[in-house]
Amino acid sequence: MRSGNALAQFPLVALVGVLLVVISTTVYVFELTALAIPTPEAVSGLIPSATIYFVVVLLCVCLVLLDFRRSVSERIAVIRARAMAPLSPGWLIPYVLSIGKYRRYFIVTALLYGVFYAVITSMIVYQPSVDFAQAYGASVPSAQVTPVPTAPFLTPVVTVYLVNHLGLLLVPLTVLLLVATSVLVGLNSALAGFAFGSRVKGAGKGWVGGMGAVVGLFTGCPTCAGLFFANFLGGAGAVSFAAFLGYYQPVFILISIPVLVAAPYLTSRSLSKVFSNGCVVLPKTA
Q1: What is the mean pLDDT of residues 228-245?
Q2: Taking Cα atoms as reference points, which of 78, 88, 77 lies closest to residue 275?
Q3: Which residues of 62-90 are buried (b: 16+ CB within 10 A; e: fewer)?
Q4: What's 184-212 look like in SS3?
Q5: Confidence bin at 122 (pLDDT 50/70/90)
Q6: Residues whose CB is less than 8 angstroms from the CB of residue 238 and which lie 6 or more positions away in sequence, other chains included
C-alpha cells in the first residue's frame, strides 16, 4: 500500500514532459545545424518541424503544470487526513494553497507577474504607431513561425498578430521562463502572506525588516532587480544599462530561479520559530 502511494506521488507526467522537451529540442537543433547553407529557402523548409517543436514545448509545459496540480491535490488530501502539515516546503506549500485566501494570493500574483514579465521582456508587443498589415504585410489575426538558426531554446521565433497594433513575440526560452518564474513568484507570495499572517507580534522591525523588503523585491520580482540597479546609474548610464539588461534579461531571470526555489526553504525555517512542534496543526473542525 505504501509503495502504491509513493508511485502515485511520483511526478511521472512531469518527468515525461521534461524528457519530451529535451528530446524534441535535441532533434530540432540537429535539423537546424544539419543545414549546410542556411538559405531562406532551406530555413523555410523547417517551418513544419519548428511548428511541431513549439507545440511540443507548450504541451510539455501543460503536462508539468497538470502534474504539479495533481501532486498538490494529493498532498492536501493527506494533510487533511492527518490534520497536520510538516514545515517542509513539499508539505507547507500544498497546505498554504488549500487555504482560499492564500490560494488567491498565488493566482493573482502569478498572473500579474506573468503579464508584467511578458511586457518587460517584449513578449507582448504594442506599437500604436505601426500598422502591422502595412508594415509587415501580416494578416490580422495570424501567426508566423520562423526557424531562426541560433542557440537552443531561442528558436523558433513565433510572431502572433492579435490585432492591428498588438502582438506576441515568443521563443521557447521566454515561454518556459514565463511559466517557471510566474509560478515560483506566486508560490513565494502565498508563503510570504502565510508567514506574515503567522508572525510573532512585534517581529520583523528595524534594519532586518528593511533588508527583508529588498530581498523580497529580488525574490518576488526578478525583473524588478534591473530597475533597482538602473536607478543608481541615472542619465546615459541608465539607458545603456537598460539596453544591456534587455538583451540578457532571460539569463538574469534564469539565474534568479534558484533564489525563488530556495526562498520557500528559508520561509519554512523561519516558521519553525512560530510552530515550535515542527508542523502546522489543523483545527479540529477542519
Answers
A1: 42
A2: 88
A3: ebbeebbebbbeebbeebeeeebbbbebe
A4: HHHHHHHHHHHHHHCCCCCCCCCHHHHHH
A5: confident
A6: 230, 231
Residue type, 175: V
Please say whether the beta carbons of 105 and 189 come within 8 A.
yes
Distance (Å, whole) CA 65 – CA 183: 9
Q: Which three cell numbers stand for residue 134?
A: 502595412
CB within 8 Å of 166: residues ≥ 6 apart: 124, 125, 126
Take residue 240 and report the three cell numbers written for it. Answer: 545603456
Q: Which residues pair with 170 in a beta bridge?
A: 158
Amino acid at 245: L
Rounded to a whole number, what is the distance in angstroms from the first to the last CA of the chain? 26
